[in-house]
Write a structure and sequence with these properties.
Helix content is 64%, strand content 0%. With 121 residues, it is mainly alpha-helical. The termini are far apart. Helix 5 runs antiparallel to helix 6.
């Protein structure tokens, strides 16, 4: 038997590396020249997976405004799900919550208009 056959595949390590690289891409830590000028952000190395500390720092760097928009989007998605399930009152509640957080969101406005048309007498 060769030495390759004796070595078990470290699936947990492979999964962890994949998760870290994906999270790094999501949080903008690992970038592959996505900027219009082709430059990389400071302290960025193409193809290098971010450390746990870098991921935590990126998560903390999310602005309060972005968090509010994310929460509004979560209410929008819940409203869409309720709308698909014909639970129109719950859909309206979710769209209203989203609109309160992000009044300029066109998707939330459209969802609210649709559910209001359905519930209109």
């Amino acid at each position: 038997m060769s030495s390759v056959e004796k070595t078990p595949v470290p699936w947990a390590k492979i999964a962890l590396v994949a998760a870290v690289v994906c999270c790094g891409a999501v949080y903008g830590i690992v970038e592959y020249s996505h900027r219009s000028d082709g430059s990389l952000p400071e302290n960025s190395v193409p193809g290098r997976a971010p450390t746990s500390a870098e991921i935590l720092a990126a998560e903390k760097a999310v602005t309060p405004e972005k968090k509010i928009k994310q929460e509004a989007n979560a209410h929008y998605l819940a409203g869409v799900k309720y709308l698909q399930d014909a639970r129109y009152e719950l859909a309206r509640e979710e769209f209203m919550k989203g609109k309160k957080l992000d009044p300029a969101n066109a998707d939330i406005k459209a969802g609210l208009e649709r559910v209001n048309k359905i519930l209109a007498p």
